[in-house]
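for the writeup, i need someone to sanity check this before i put it in the appendix. the sequnce is what the collaborator sent (i think, or maybe the updated version? ugh). structure was predicted straight from it, no edits. if anything looks off just tell me and ill rerun, i have time this weekend
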Amino acid sequence: MDNKKEAPKAKKSAEIEETEVKKGPKWGILIPLIVILTICGSVGGTVLATHFLAPKTEQESSSVKRNAGTGKLSDEEKLVSVPKFVVNLATDDSSNTQYARLKISILVENADKAAEAKKNMAVIRDAVINVMKKKKATDILSNSGSVTALKNELKDGINEQLGETLAIQVYVTDLVVQ
């Protein structure tokens, strides 16, 4: 009789072990689910931080800097064309006069700055002439980086003459040295 009582107990313990194994976590489903949730959380946090929590002024100023280097204009930026003019260049010999014909465009931040540049066109032209009068033909044409240096000097001269940062970039659209 004791054998009969022990047999059902052994049977019940085997069933309990099987159900315990079956009730355990399913790692085959759980691990990919954790990985997917981690990736989604990381991407969502990055999007939240960059688009919604970053200050607007920092984003706008970085786009202006980024666009100024590429030559691509943002929606707010405007180009102001300065009429073509001729400037005497500096020379070592007074009998050998050299000239530069120059046409430039100035990149400004917005339409208000463009209106201000048009209003102060005489001051801008004066600043360009003052920079160009100090240059020799060899300074302008000496190497590939000389025109870039000239554009930076023109930008600095314009901003200095106006007493504010009006020109973000200066583009030379026509240059002839004779």
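The two ends are 125 Å apart (CA to CA). The chain has seven helices and three strands.
thx in advance!!
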